[in-house]
Specification:
By secondary structure, this protein is of the alpha/beta class. The protein is built from six helices and seven strands, in the order βββαααβαββαβα. Strands 3-4-5-6-7 form a five-stranded parallel β-sheet, with helices on both faces. Strands 1-2 form a two-stranded antiparallel sheet. Strand 6, helix 5 and strand 7 form a beta-alpha-beta unit. Helix 3 crosses helix 4. The two termini are about 30 Å apart. It holds the Pfam family DLH. This is Dienelactone hydrolase domain-containing protein.
Length: about 220
Amino acid sequence: MEEQGTFVNFLSDNKAGPGCGMLFGDPKKCPFGLIVIHEWWGMNYQIKRTGLLYPEMVADDREEAGHLMAGLDWSGALLDTSAAAEFLKQKGCSEVGVTGFCLGGALSFAAAVKCPQIKASAPFYGIPSPEVADLSKIQIPIQAHFAEKDEIIGFSAPVDYEPLREKLVAAGVKLEFYTYNASHAFTNHAGPNYDAEATKLSFSRVYAFMKKYLK
């Protein structure tokens, strides 16, 4: 039986107002907290299954999802990510990490630069533009996950993530970098590209990574 999350609100410096998300587990009983940032589809059933603490913005189809992503207030989203981390710390988590998928993966990378409350980041198949964040300035551990069959050029395809890998290594970032014989959004249980084996392996790596770096 799946755990039922609790809908929560938390204060944020985002001009759009308070942040909101789903809280799973009791932070007082957890050694660390993990923010899970959704794909461009928003806080749909799939991401609720994974566990979420990020503002709600939901799309019903790919075109609408693309518009939401293109119109995202990245600065505001990063303020909300910082606020979510503070919320978890106030609730009892000693340290906080972040992971995310697609849009959430790009935000997880950006949060590694822009959100000092975040102590470890595990982005999935998403890279922010240089205008959002200079990833060579990352000072926390990163565990990156990408798909070898990803066709979203300019965001998460091999032609994008291979130069990123080289950039992070050259910058001396503490890095674990994994690629999978899968397509974009391979962790989405409800999507056509779902790959159960790659999902299980990647999630086990994220869990071990967060246990290693968050105390």
